[in-house]
Structure formats: C-alpha cells, structure tokens
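To assess whether ligand presence alters the predicted conformation, the chain was also submitted together with fe (iii) ion. Input:
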Amino acid sequence: MRIKTMDELFVETLKDIYYAEKHIVKALPDMVKKAHGGELKKALENLRSETKEQINRLEKAFEMLDVSPRARKCEAIEGILRESEEDMAAIEDEDVRDAGMIGSAQAIEHYEICRYGTLIEWAKDLGRNDVAALLGQSLEQEKNADKLLTQIARSTTNRLAAGGAAA
Ligand code: FE
Ligand code: FE
C-alpha cells in the first residue's frame, strides 16, 4: 500500500506493533515452559499477561482513531522470534539457555520500546494526546520488563559463574 500522510504512517505503524504483540503473546507460552530459573519463568508469565493488556490497549487506540484493528506483517519481530526459537532449540545447558532466552526477551522488549516511543511522539504531533497517553502505559510496562530482565540476567550469570557451566 502507499502511505501518503503522517496519519496513514501512524496507523500503519500501529498495525505493525499490533502484529508484533499478537505474535509475542503466542511465542511466550513456549518460552515460559522452557525457562529453567523460577525468576525468569515468573517474569515471562507476567510478560504474557501484560502483552494481553497491551493488545487490548492497541485495540482501544484503533477504536479511538476510528480505524478497524488490523495487523500488518512485522518482519522484524518475526526475525527476532525465529532467532529466539533457534537458540532455545540449540542450547542444551539449562542455565545457558536461560541466558539466551533473557537476551531474546530483551531484543523483543527493545523493539517494542522503540516502536511505542515513536508512536507516542507521532500521536502528540498529530494532536492525539489521548492516544499518546494510552500507548504510554504500554511503553512503561515494556521499560519495566526490560529492567527486570537485566536484573535476572545478572543473577543467571552469577549462577553460571558459580556452576562453571560456561566452561
Ligand atoms: Fe509488548
Ligand atoms: Fe515492525
């Protein structure tokens, strides 16, 4: 499709993150199942419930803009999720796999943080502070999830160092 205006670009990008969130929510149960550390398992479970909230928020945003909620294929998230699956299947050691999964989850979070960040600025530019505020709630959740994953990464690395599994 041809994108002519900022309004159209905004909606197309909203469809991109909508696609991404919908695929993330589908990928998470397998990640939860494969996570070894309790902290990581819990964080991924929490991510799943937050992702559902984020999907609802996006549907609300489409409604506020009077556009039907449609997803637009996001090649970026497909690639990130594919790498994540490949790593999970390739790594045998549980702690090493956890470290890989944390890295994948952070790659997901960072993609979302940049998308929401852009969308929020564009929404403000387009005079839609209401939509910006709504998306801001999701951005906060993504940022907090990323911070929590960094903390879990540290304890996982410590466990690896103690167990010598990295050798
Ligand atoms: Fe999300
Ligand atoms: Fe995308």
